[in-house]
Amino acid sequence: MPNHKTPLAKARLTGADKANPQRYRDRKEPATSGQPVGDAPAYMDKEAKAAWRELAKSLGWLAREDRHAVEVAALAIGQVRTMSKAGEPVTAALVSASRQALAALGATPADRSKIHVTDDDEANDPFAKFGMQ
Length: 133
Description:
single chain, mainly alpha, 0% strand
């Protein structure tokens, strides 16, 4: 069975698009609004809202389009915290779900190394998208 295609965003983050530009030259990716994630949904409990604020503050590359992924991560982290404070055992499934949600956001050490955030100079450079300086 062949490997799945690497998404363009991941290829850019890992540098694969530079190593094999011919594989990615015809790929397109959806644009993001560039707006911040914003406030947590009103229905969340105190722990989940605190996790939301921490994620939004520490993961500066997130955009408004990432709200659903942040919501899943914040709910899982909030539940782990609530259970821990109550002295209840935290299930392996909940810990795994929390870790997967964090990985999807690029919030683990290994996944964070794959994130590429452009400098202000690079973002304002009209030739940056062509790899020219």
